[in-house]
Design goal:
This protein has helices at 13-36, 39-63, 75-94, 100-111; strands spanning 2-5, 8-11. With 112 residues, it is mostly helical. The protein has one domain (2-111). A hairpin with a 2-residue loop joins strand 1 and strand 2. The longest helix has 25 residues, at 39-63. It starts with a strand and ends with a helix.
Length: 112
């Protein structure tokens, strides 16, 4: 997540590491799906990739919205909204969302 601090943009290293871990997982799933010629695993890997992308978009969009003073500035709220964004991203990618997963799946399916 990118947080504005004193007019500068600072990248939250925990979020970057989490995204990097998810990308490695995607690469592993993709390689395994291609090696085994497993259509279901390939489709899951493509949906996971779209989910990662959508999650990053949602978190960056949320970072632009001012915090609500009703709940205060709580780490619990930050964790909850982060987890909520991840779940929204999963639901969006599984329901067809942006269509990126389908495009990736079809392009990799040709290579199988």
């Amino acid at each position: 997540m990118i947080n504005p601090i004193n007019g500068l943009l600072v990248i939250d290293s925990a979020n970057v590491k989490s995204s990097a871990d998810k990308t490695v997982s995607f690469e592993t799933m993709l390689k395994e799906a291609v090696d085994k010629k497993d259509d279901e695993l390939l489709k899951k890997a493509c949906q996971d990739f779209e989910s990662i992308l959508v999650s990053m978009v949602l978190k960056n969009m949320r970072a632009t919205v001012p915090k609500d003073s009703l709940y205060g500035n709580s780490i619990g709220i930050d964790i909850f909204t982060s987890m909520l964004d991840d779940e929204y991203a999963k639901e969006i990618s599984q329901s067809g969302g942006f269509g990126l997963a389908d495009m990736l799946y079809k392009s990799f399916l040709i290579k199988l």
